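The records we work with from here on pair a chain with its fold. These numbers are not coordinates but entries in a learned vocabulary of local backbone shapes. To see the layout at work, look at the sequence and tokens printed below.

. . .
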Amino acid sequence: MSKRIRPAGEILCKIEKLMDELIDDHKFQCGDILYNQYGWIKIHRPDAIEEYEDGGEPTFYYGPKEEE
């Protein structure tokens, strides 16, 4: 018997409530949330990071626009 996979939308609805709590009660900002999730993935689930055909991986950047 195969395991029932919970719909992604159901999981995201639960995460949305937790994100609201972080923003409303703990004053998290966009950068706090983005790096918290990215840092968690880098440490706990590096297998979830895409790998390019050349062996590289995406660069995560959040900050001011770089001058050209």
